[in-house]
Amino acid sequence: MNPEVAAAVERLRGDGVLEDLEASLFGRVARRELVTVRLEIRAALYAGVLLLTAGVGLFVKENHERIGPAAIGIAIGVGAAACLVWAARRSAPFAWGEATSAHAGFDYVLLLGALLVATDLAYLETQLELLGPNWPWHLLAIAVLYGFLAYRFDSKMLLSLALASFAAWRGIAVSVGRTFLGSGDPARLRVEALACGALFVALGVAAARRQRKPHFEDVYVNAGLLLVFGGLLSGVLGDGRDRWGAWLLVLLLVVAAVAAVGFHAQRTLPLALAVVAAYLGLLRPIFEIRGSEALPLLLAAILAALALLFIVFARRRMRVP
Amino acid sequence: MKREWIAAERVEEVRAAAKGWKRAGAVDSGTFGEISRRYPEPRPLPAPLWRLLTAFFVTAGLLLLTGALFIAFRPEIGTTPLLLLFLSAMCVVAAEVQERSPALALRGGAGAASFWGIVFLLVGVFLFLEETLKVREESGGTILVLASLAFWALAAWRWGSPGYAAFAGISLFILLARAPSGRLLWITSGVALTLVFERVLDRPSWSPSHGRCAAVLVVVGLLGVYAAVNLYSLDHRLVESLRGTGLDLPGPRFQERIWAIVGTAVLPVAVLWWGARSRRTFVLDAGIVIAALSLITLRHYVHIAATWLVLSLAGTALVLLALALNRWLSKGPEKERDGFTAEPLFADEARLRALELAPVVAAHAPGPRPPVEPGYQGGGGSFGGGGAGGSY
Fold first, then answer.
1. Would you call B337 helix, strand, or coil by DSSP?
2. Digit-coded pLDDT (tens) for A102-134
């Protein structure tokens, strides 16, 4: 129960600010007479998707020699089709604007269907070798599939996976794991990250300008900025040929541009990414200082304080919550 | 907690509720404006991202400054606790100053400063016990955990952070584990913690943040009881192992195992029943978690099927159960049944959906294609031994 809200609702009803019907509903929620379990339903669906895809993956791995590719491919395909048909029946009609389904489970059943299709494609590719030595192109096929489903069913979740799959096709690891951008030639990966990032940002801007799913803009732009800053920071922190200075200069120029646009457009996340990227990049020259062990740490602390002041200043000027 | 902070929290609760009503379209702009006028913003409340950024840079600044001080002055091991105590005091003072200023409170800086203040204090206590007083490991560990309990509890009371309440609860259970009948103490204390703090959850005299701390302690109590009765925990002496290493721990008796089996099976049902009856979703969530742990425990002891089958069936069952529950609730009168609904009510669905993106991408994004290695390509049999030709 939320005693403050319950008391406020009664007060507002008595003063005529809230109508009886409104106050009745708000009061019920505040007194815990009406409770939503939507979050629990979504969490259960997510856990179910995780377990099911893990189980399917293990099944394929342990049984593909006994059962045969055709049977496995068909079984997974039937499961995927069932999920996608269910989603299609409950989705809103296609529109270039927002057309999200109100069903609590829609996102995750759609996700399950998409993941099963991707699993099926990957499995059939490994068994039938349709693409031969060009097998990584199936990642592009998956990216296109996810993208199509994202647009048809208005799913930011699938759009994020589409962008991640596209980046994977270019060899870039999305998570910050063992290697910064992925395994392979760091210089090539940096270029790929920058190119992918720029492409995603451009797609986001185009989506907003042309009003083609404009609400997808933040997914495109944020994913793009992560890749761009990741690529530039990889150059600043990881370049072993003393070219880190040039990378730092480019990073700061990009940071300034992104911060200016984010400030002007009142977009918090791009501004935050820019500030963090600039801070991490500037740590390189600080820690290049020789002769004193404490001085770099002190300078890095001062830099953190300056970043903090900038954040306070930016928030006040942007007048955003 | 100061009266002004409590008063500010109460107003913020009403404002947050009103924002939810407006977001859901349940009230119009005029009504929302009137509510905002009657409950004016007591202190600016930045969005979570700003608070996270602030906490990040305050943390970075504090840790780097601490490192610089230690490297510059290279204090003796005996004076290190004093330095840490000084740093802790500075952090606590900084947290207090920020909390007292409406312009600086709730920005993430106060939280970061208070957190590191407690951490520095605990590290200082540890070094003081270990290096200065040369206290024996077991006694020193007990004193440290006692100090941890006291400091986090004080911090939770002063600043109202549910995280600090959780740390205090965990410290309590670690302390109890060090006693001879640790497992029994976990059960009794867990029950006591749950019952005591459940009673104050709806008390108007408690501030909203203290109410959230109480809710956290109810969950900690439930989890503590479950960890004590779980069969796997009993068989592997997980509670007893917290007393330290090198202890000769006898195996559980048969009667204890029977009780553990019953507890592992019954406790999740009891908690879920309590959560459904009281309509407390956090109790329901705790019940779901311990039910999942019980099923995992069952799987550990009873191998009735291959892992892939268990995972697939469990996943399918979860998906179908969630969809069935959603359908059942949606088909009820006014889309609710017995006070439960699958409608979002006034929650910020857009923000929840945005938060879901990161774990989904992290879990399901495909791995990158492997790099293509240029260079050597074998010529196979055309480079054979003496007399071998390039072709036949």
1. strand
2. 888 899 999 999 999 998 888 888 888 877 778
- Chain A environment of B340 (Cβ under 8 Å): 34-37
3-state helix, strand, coil in chain B (%, to 5): 70, 0, 25
Question: pLDDT tens for residues B23-35?
Answer: 999 999 999 999 9
B102 lies in the same domain as B195: no
**Domain stop point among B251, B276, B302:** B302
Token pair, residue B169, equals 């609860």
Q: Do A173 and B367 touch (CB under 8 A)?
A: yes
Verify that B87 and B1 share a domain, yes or no.
Answer: no
Residue B145 lies in a domain: no
Quickly state the pLDDT bin for A290 (edges 50, 70, 90). confident
Domain ranges of chain A: 1-35, 38-169, 175-321
B281, B302, B323: which is the final residue of a domain? B302
Size of interface A-B (CB pairs under 8 A): 286
**Pairwise CA distance, residues A54 & B315, whole Å:** 9
Count of the separate structural domains present in chain B: 3
Distance from CA of A244 to the nearest CA of B (A): 23
In a domain, B369, yes or no: no
Query: Is the domain of B178 the same as that of B281?
Result: yes
* Chain position carrying tokens 């900038």: A310
Other beta carbons less than 10 A from residue A91's beta carbon: 19
Q: What is the per-residue DSSP string for A14-67?
A: HTTSS-HHHHHHHHHHHTTSSEE-HHHHHHHHHHHHHHHHHHHHHHHHHHHHHH
3-state secondary structure of A237: helix
Averaged confidence pLDDT in chain A: 89
Q: Hey, is B336 helix, strand or coil?
A: strand
> Which of B27, B107, B363 lies nearest to residue A50, judging by beta carbons?
B363
* Interface check B365 vs A, CB under 8 A: yes
Strands A35-36 and B336-337: unpaired
Q: In this structure, what token pair is assigned to residue B366?
A: 């495909």
Helix (H, G, I), strand (E, B) or coil at B340: strand
Tell me whether B123 touches chain A (CB under 8 Å). Answer: no
Q: Residue A174 and residue B365: Cβ atoms within 8 Å?
A: yes
Q: In this complex, do A58 and B311 lie within 8 Å of one another by their Cβ atoms?
A: yes
Is B34 domain-assigned? yes
User: Which pair of structure tokens corresponds to residue A145?
Assistant: 């599939």
How close A33 gets to chain B, by Cα (Å)? 6
Instruction: Tell whether B204 is within 8 A of chain A (Cβ).
Output: yes
Question: Above pLDDT 70, what percent of chain B?
Answer: 93
Percent pLDDT > 90 in chain B is: 67
Average pLDDT over residues B99-126: 90
Query: B46 to each of B11, B104, B273, how far by Cα in Å?
Result: 16, 10, 38
- Do B362 and A175 count as a contact with CB atoms less than 8 A apart? yes
Put simply, whether B274 touches A (Cβ < 8 Å) is no
Lowest mean pLDDT among A58-67, A292-301, B143-152: A58-67
Which among B50, B279, B322 has the least Cβ separation from residue A32? Answer: B279
The number of CA neighbours under 13 Å toward the Cβ of B208 is 19
In a domain, B156, yes or no: no
Containing A173, the helix (H) or strand (E) segment is none
Global pTM value: 0.88
The residue segments making up the domain with residue B199 are: 161-302
A196, A198, A203, A206: CA torsion to nearest 10: -170
Q: Which of B317, B365, B370 sits opposite A161 (nearest CB)?
A: B365
B318 closest CB neighbour out of A48, A54, A275: A48
